[in-house]
Amino acid sequence: MNYGYDLKNNVLYIDRNSIPAYNIEKNEIGVCSACAANLLSISYHSFDDLVIVAKCSSCNLISANIYNVDWIWLDEIVISHFLSENIQNENVGCGLQEDRRSDVCANFKLLKNIPMKQLQTIFSPAEINAMFSRAKGDECVRQYLYNARKKYDTFENVFGITINV
Ligand SMILES: [Zn+2]
Predict the structure, then answer these.
(1) How far is the CA of 36 from the centre of ligand 1 (A)?
(2) Domain boundary among 56, 82, 108
(3) Structural domain of residue 109, as residue ranges?
(4) Number of separate domains in the chain
(5) 37 CA distance to ligand 1 centroid (A)?
(6) How many CB atoms lie within 10 A of CB 103?
(7) In angstroms, what is the span from residue 131 Cα to ligand 1's centroid?
């Protein structure tokens, strides 16, 4: 299943279904799988199971946390930044200085066209987050980007795609 999220309208997308929030309370719901900081809920959704979309208070990773109807935790699925906030923000990063602009856009387009499943095969959620941030020209956690860069060769060997961010 593909997960996406519209941060502006609090709509969760699961494959072709759009699921509006029934609650937008902010609660601590656990810890981030990438950095162990607190996860804060953004919105609650009901779709067969119950889904809480949450954002890490430290690394800003956004995830869909899935529970059964008895609120037993089932799974956590990372929602990429691209799917979450860049639906309306397609040209983010393109306002940078002339010389970096084309680079930033090319890298960002390349990254967002790689299926998330492929990225997740090689990179950790935090590394994916750092790569997208970097490609958009945003701040990123250097350590995660550094770790990700060490795997670019592996990614190229497996999927034939050269990443250069
Ligand atoms: Zn985190």
Answers:
(1) 6
(2) 82
(3) 91-159
(4) 2
(5) 5
(6) 15
(7) 15
Query: Do the Cβ atoms of 86 and 6 come closer than 8 Å?
Result: no
Residue 19 token pair: 């699921």
Specify the pTM. 0.53
The two tokens of residue 158 are: 């497996």
Query: Do 96 and 74 belong to one domain?
Result: no
At residue 109, the pLDDT reads 77
Tell me the CA–centroid distance for residue 104 and ligand 1, in Å. 24
From CA 49, how far away is CA 10, in angstroms rounded? 17
Domain-ending residue, one of 82, 114, 144: 82
Per the CB < 8 A criterion, the answer to whether 77 and 64 are in contact is: yes
Distance 35 CA to ligand 1 centre (A): 4
Counting as low any pLDDT under 70, the low residues of the chain are 80-105
Task: Give rounded-to-5 percent helix, strand, coil for the chain.
Answer: 35, 30, 35
